[in-house]
Amino acid sequence: MTNPIKTLCPYCGVGCGLDVSPPAVSGKPINRDKQGTPVWQARGDRAHPSSQGMVCVKGATITEALHKDRLLHPMMRESLDEPFRRVSWDEALGRVSDRIQTVRTTQGADAICMYGSGQFNTEDYYVAQKLMKGFLGTNNFDANSRLCMSSAVAGYVQSFGADGPPCCYDDLDVTDCAFLIGTNTAECHPIVFNRLRKHHKQHKHVKLIVVDPRKTQTAEVADLHLAIKPGTDIDLLNGIAYLLLYRGYLDSVFVAKHTNHFTAFAEVIEDYKPDVVAKRCGISIEDLETAAQYWGKSKRVLSMWSMGINQSSEGTAKVRSIINLHLMTGQIGKPGAGPFSLTGQPNAMGGREAGGLSHLLPGYRSVKNPQHRAEVEQFWGLEPGQISPAPGRTAWDMITGMEEGAVGLLWIAATNPAVSMPDLERTKRALLRSPFTVYQEAYYPTETSAYAHVLLPAAQWSEAPGTMTNSERRVTLCPQFRTPPGEARADWVIFAEVARRLGFSKPFTFNGAADVHAEFVQLTRGRPCDMTGITHDRLRYEGPLQWPCVQGEDEGNIVQTEKGRFRFPSFMRNPQKLSASRLAAKRLYTDYQFHTPDGRARFAAHHSRGLAEPPDDRYPYVLTTGRLYGHWHTQTRTGRVDKIRQMYDGPFIEIHPRDAAAIGIKEGGWLDVRSRRGIARFPAKITTAIVPQTVFVPMHWGALWANKAEANALTHPEACPDSLQPELKACAVQLIPVGFEMPAIEADAPFENISARSTSLSVSTPLKK
Ligand SMILES: Nc1nc2c(c(=O)[nH]1)N[C@H]1C(S)=C(S)[C@@H](COP(=O)(O)OP(=O)(O)OC[C@H]3O[C@@H](n4cnc5c(=O)[nH]c(N)nc54)[C@H](O)[C@@H]3O)O[C@H]1N2
Ligand SMILES: Nc1nc2c(c(=O)[nH]1)N[C@H]1C(S)=C(S)[C@@H](COP(=O)(O)OP(=O)(O)OC[C@H]3O[C@@H](n4cnc5c(=O)[nH]c(N)nc54)[C@H](O)[C@@H]3O)O[C@H]1N2
Ligand code: SF4
Ligand SMILES: [Mo]
């Protein structure tokens, strides 16, 4: 029997290790999906330090989605109302590079935009940055991480002087108090939650606090669930800070030695007395006191957060307010403690390392910093001044850019903006105005393919090698173990080929993904995310590695045996040295030296500003949106897995019984949900799991999977001024009951003839301009 192949689950940022085996393993029946197609089998990898053999339903079923409805060949059309025709790679890439040249000369490089994804490998991210920011000289590269992690990035940078979650998953096993705010960890980061829950169950003293307007599966097992009103997180956090200060839990030595700006912060929290805070948040004073007590009395406090914090018009301030609590109690840089942002996508972290947002450069650098630009220009062999000092367009700025006619070419890869962007009607209208859209995808169709002029088939996970970094800064190699279907190619290979066609031949000639990686890590040398000690080979033989991992300090000395275990080879150097340096990589800031000029962390003094679009008489309810355990985003993969599809009947809206009675809606009755921007329809799910005056809809059902059930038809693009991350978690809506039958609605024009579950490449996507 052959050994299983070790890789990483390509769904969420937990980054679980997978053991995958071919469909046919000798002595066993061939593994097939329900349709009878032989498929690889995925299991948890016990040797992976992050997940220790565990997986959730998404990871366990990933192989069933890989072969269905794939985009197999490049396709092209002159205008969006024509059908696609199959073309060769040569024709497609010739067309793309010609168009780039034309736009550069007629409109300038800043009329070119690329919108990428936390589902890229680090190698894909890197080559895209080199092409866009380096050789084309425009910073118009942004990723869907703008909708996801950018508030966490901005918060870390402002408070600590650099990005990078300081904690690790081993902290889950040793903390005394877990403070989960704006995260439905049980459904969205299940294996992180499993580890935490096991520890929580085993140790009576361990407290679990959950802050969420919904009683999620995460909140159900909490010792304390604070069901705050949406948008009152800063009130709560400042309220807890007030109590910590006045109940004697301040670590004044830590504050004096390792922080700045405490006085300004202390002045702000004076306004957050318990009675005021309890009222604003809609919780009891006792619960607020309990939260502060749990925090203050625990030796080790680990806070975790995700989209309930980041997706907010005050997202960065929320992140910094969480960090404030850690700084005032000295809860950082030690086991079981620290502010831990849970990353959404499998390689959102790698994206940050490679500079994959429109204000970043590789190696945790910033386009605004002249020295950073000079370092990268020199490394890439560019003329000084070639990298623009101005941050490029964010995802939403690309939409407004198309509205203004300022975008000549939009290149979308590994994301499905026709479902996931805010204010979807506006987004779709803008996409219709794009004069030339390239869409690089693994599947066909997706909702976004209707807006493309050129479709480029991408090899996805399992079909091309690359690396990904998970939430605890651990890099795992994802080897290729399947042949890409049709003519699909790796994303970075496509970027590099276009670059060469544009005349940048030598800088974009790579000898494989390992070569791209080796070049990229040189740009992390001496940076907070130093990965110069990591190579594809080392990951292959030694297994996943956390950064910082500095070349020379720790070259690695473990190999894998046939049994998949690890042992020290005979030529081993000092194992103590290895473990010391690997140990040092587990947690950041153990020496309390932060990446600010004076080494001190910074307190932030922020008042609560509340929601960007608060409810009013016309739109009296707050709509919040989010995820379900089984589905992944826009369902391109999970919608094609039988087991997962059977878990959910379809989209729905959660509403409190009191509100349901007030508007006269019964369980299963249809509700028209209207915001200032759009309309969607859902059957009602009446539940006390949501606070009154608030409703919840899942984000997973785009136009291909349901009729008018798009969460983002309703949301708005108002964003945090620091992170520019839109407030996808809240908008004001009205609710209108429309009976028990799904009301007849006008078909969504681009998809009249497409059923997502039975498609072939001959399907055209007629679209009226
Ligand atoms: N099953 C599954 N897992 C996933 C994903 C998936 O699609 N499916 N996607 C991955 C990605 S990319 C991401 S970003 C993560 C997201 O992971 P999470 O952030 O955990 O998921 P969400 O459901 O988007 O939102 C979390 C919670 O925020 C709450 N919330 C809403 N408004 C507020 C508020 O004002 N304050 C507070 N405190 N909470 C609020 C919501 O009620 C919701 O329960 O999940 C990752 N994991
Ligand atoms: N209302 C609302 N909207 C939201 C959110 C929310 O909470 N509420 N969350 C936001 C967040 S946090 C996120 S991360 C986004 C996610 O939103 P999207 O990024 O739009 O969602 P996905 O379905 O993950 O899209 C990824 C696409 O990449 C394709 N793909 C997979 N692998 C590869 C590959 O290797 N190469 C290429 N080229 N393509 C590949 C998949 O087929 C899929 O179509 O949604 C955002 N939108
Ligand atoms: S928890 Fe995340 S990384 Fe782990 S198996 Fe599930 S989806 Fe994959
Ligand atoms: Mo995300």
UniProtKB/TrEMBL annotation:
Instruction: Print the keywords alphabetically.
Output: 4Fe-4S, Iron, Iron-sulfur, Metal-binding, Molybdenum, Nitrate assimilation, Oxidoreductase
Q: Which PANTHER family match?
A: NADPH-FE(3+) OXIDOREDUCTASE SUBUNIT ALPHA, RESPIRATORY NITRATE REDUCTASE
Query: Entry's InterPro entries?
Result: Asp_de-COase-like_dom_sf, CT_Nitrate-R-NapA-like, MoPterin_dinucl-bd_dom, Mopterin_OxRdtase, Mopterin_OxRdtase_4Fe-4S_dom, Prok_molybdopt-oxidoreductase
Q: Name one GO biological process term.
A: nitrate assimilation
- Protein name stated in the entry: Nitrate reductase catalytic subunit
Q: Which family does the record assign?
A: Belongs to the prokaryotic molybdopterin-containing oxidoreductase family. NasA/NapA/NarB subfamily.
Where does the 4Fe-4S Mo/W bis-MGD-type domain lie?
A: 2-70
What does the record give as cofactor? [4Fe-4S] cluster; Mo-bis(molybdopterin guanine dinucleotide)
Pfam families per the UniProt record, alphabetical: Molybdop_Fe4S4, Molybdopterin, Molydop_binding
Lineage at the top is: Bacteria, Bacillati, Cyanobacteriota, Cyanophyceae, Leptolyngbyales
One GO term describing the cellular component: membrane
MF (Gene Ontology): 4 iron, 4 sulfur cluster binding; metal ion binding; molybdopterin cofactor binding; oxidoreductase activity
**This protein's record includes keyword Protease:** no
**Could you tell me which PROSITE patterns the record lists for this protein?**
4FE4S_MOW_BIS_MGD
